[in-house]
Amino acid sequence: MTRKPGAPITTRELPLILSQSALLFIDVQNFSAHPDGGEFKGLSASERDARYGYYFDRLRSTALPNMRRLQAAFRRAGSEVLYTVIESLTIDGRDRSLDYKITGFHVPKGSWDGKVLDELAPQGDEIVLPKTSSSVFVSTHIDYLLRNLGVRQLVVAGLITDQCIESAVRDACDLGYLVTLVPDACATYAQARHDASLRAIAGYCRQVDTAALVEEISRESERSRREDGDGGD
Predict the structure, then answer these.
(1) May I ask the CATH architecture of the domain 18-227?
(2) Which pLDDT tens digit goes with each residue over 94-152?
(3) What residues contact residue 43 under an 8 Å CB cut-off, 6+ apart?
(4) Is the pTM of this model over 0.90?
(5) Among 17, 82, 123, 169, fewest CB within 10 Å belongs to which?
């Protein structure tokens, strides 16, 4: 199924219009995705493995490789790639949400913990948004930014499936975006939590695994080139 820009929208199960699409990576940063990150501070290696072994295995074996495939596909298509990171606007974190203060999440402005993981590092002028709440739509100006960029379809991947990912999907949907979630490019702390979250937000977004979405992007890119007269007679 294809859709022309401006056509009425009656389903979430629509392919991307690449000129109106952006990829958003949520919180794939040293703080929460590196074994030495601040979220795991104070844990011995054995304690970290016992508590977070599934999470790091999922991240390294499945989610992160798929994030890199998505990143490459969006870059080839010339579509926007954006990132959020948990990071305060201050050194002491006084601007954090009350929830983050209670939880103990503290990523000072400019710190190593606040950097996107090296394997997924932004290139050029790709946009990185520091946030201090679960939903990027609450503690950043991303809605204003996406509208300025002409984005109507948002692809979401990253961490944590049943926390910041789920919050972003719900808020983006309520704000009028068509949302595509990529389940095998997300991770949380247990498979059961991941699966439960996918079921909970199934009515808010279409859910497409990486291989199928990369194929879709390639197909839509080729179709756009043909329509522009660059790929055919």
Answers:
(1) 3-Layer(aba) Sandwich (3.40)
(2) 999 999 999 999 999 999 999 999 999 999 999 999 999 999 999 999 999 999 999 99
(3) 51
(4) yes
(5) 123
